[in-house]
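>> received
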Amino acid sequence: MSLSQRDITPLAGQLEHTLSTGLLPPDVTGWGSQLLQRLRQPVRVAVTGAPGTGKSALIDMLLGRVVIGRTAAGLPVEICYGPEEQVVFDTPAGTRRQQAGCLADTAVPPDALRVRQHLPDLRLRAHSFCEIPLAGPPGRQQDTLQQAAAMADIILWCSETFPEAEQALWSAMPDSTKDHSFLVLTMADRQIMRGILPGLIQSLEPVAAEEFLGVYPVAAIQGLTAQTAGAPAEDLWRSSGGRQLAEDVQRQIGLGRASDADQAELLIRQFGGPLPADAPPPPAASPAAVPPAPAASLAAALDQLQSGAEDMLAQAEAAGGPQAGPVLAHCMDLIRGLTASLETLPGSAAVSAARDAAQDGEELLMLCQLEQDEDAAIDAVTLLFQLKKELAEVPPG
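>> returned
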């Protein structure tokens, strides 16, 4: 079970108790309060773009069922957890109209300002979706996008071709937002039929390398069909582009939850005493960071760390330079992979010293993650190589 699916209420409760002691330095108190807020709310995934770019279809695809359909009519729509299926419409008068069922099957009141859809989907305990349409003159679109950046943890920008006007809007977003955002080329099936998809992706890759985590061509209707088919349709799910996007979005959600939990545990250890007995264990490294077989020796674990760091630097260089978010996340994956390898080794003084050094390095890397800028990314990479050197000097025994 991933961290995003675990109950982290005990950890949040311990963090709240730590904050209530009044013993934390002022600069740490603000950080801790933000952590507590993030632990107690789902990761917010915003889906935005111009009207008619397939935002509703994309959310339906990620949910695996038709929830929004074609009824949103350009309104902001939030999809969140609730014990029963229920649609809530907010009106200009400040009132709320509630109706059982799904938005796709509901008539939208003409005076509705925004919509909230509650679903008894346990996945939505960990993350919510919010469709944010961009409409009106560029200035209004920019304001809407800034609001989305302020409230969202992850952004999916939907576009058929991501033209220069959209690129100009997006370029004003803060780097901290870009580091957790995806460019989704919707209606990819149309682009394939026109024979322009490969060229379009190639032309956008330099932009996406700087502005997004990646470019994802998706045929959302095909992806939704694959999800709702009576029999498994894994090939269609994969070829639609939906599976890759869903997996990578889920990975970002998991990384966000893991980072928050890690930082909360670090703060509690420093200022609040022992962690609660029923707190979740630290998250495991991502599959890419864990070796296919246990490391046979400390030297093998160090080689794994060295090669992983070198590969990451090569990828960053190919993408035009290090980007804080991906580099920091990759560094954390590498150090957790090292920790996982060390756990497979027989106990000895050398292995024990290596485990302690790896734990210290992981805690320092958590502090780097607080900055989320280029200097922090450089510090994180430097930390990896310093850790390798330190571990290489551990005497055998």
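>> The longest strand covers residues 43-49.
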